[in-house]
Amino acid sequence: MILVTGATGILGRVIVLYLLQQGKKVRATKRPNSNLEDVRKSFAFYTENPDFYFEKIEWYNVDFDDIQSLENAVSGVEEVYHCAAKVSFHPNRKFEMYHTNIEGTKQLLYACQNTAVKKFCFISSIAVLDGLNENGEMDENSDFNHKLLHSAYAKSKHFSEMEVWRASAEGMNVVIVNPGIFIGSGNWKSSSGEMFQSLEKSPFSFSGSSAYIDVRDVAKISIDLMDKNIFDQRFILISENKKYQEIANFVKNKSGQKPVKVLSSGVLQFGIVLGNIFGWAFPILKMLNKTNIEALTSNNQISNQKIKNQLNYQFIPVLESLNFHWKNYIKNQTKA
User: 112 and 120 in contact (C-beta within 8 Å)?
Assistant: First the structure.
């Protein structure tokens, strides 16, 4: 039996599906109010037999604050894919992220102690990376630097990783993957699933860049690492580094809109001043802080060479990925 946490999320649902397609038994965690119908519908984007696979899922309501709930969920489980996390870059959600991401991971690992769990895959993020290698790129040795400014999300994932490494030191077989920004289908109004809706609405973009990856690649690689028993390592999972402007204009072009206008660093800096003055009246201005602006204007290159060498893996190109999921987004909008 395999447990997947965060199974209703944009990535978790794909990991569940791919495991089921391999003939494995899957237990999936959810909240009592989770939208399972959205998961069922999104399976249709990835398989011709969505109902067949959806009906095979063993759903569990899990409260990460309740150790008994977690112990029940891991009972009889041999492998865990921990995808559940809170993602936000709003400063007001800092403590919610710390609680969900750090304490939730700690509780889950505690529940796994002295059980049948033999393997643990943790889905982290490239947000924890700091420092460049000799090629001017971030890689798996770009360790989190506490002296630098970080978003609350990055801190929450870093300290979650520390909990996973602690479990590794105590004897659990663990692997950590650090994906870039997810490109996927379903969960259209939450986290990375909001990408197309947000880009379609906004007339602006930013001067920086980030690294992107299709959720299908993350799912396949995570499962492959576990199946091949590759442990006690971390792997950056990205397809390509792309400018925010290029990603935004892809959506604008597909939706028949004008190209975006790039907001300069100066304009964003002025936004910090406005946030300090009018943040109480316009909460969105609070998003314009030094940490977020640095992320939106930086152009750090990130390397995926380690996983390519390890698995000889060929990633889905970003534009191909965007095109596939954009079509799914439009299908969903048409049916809505």
Answer: yes
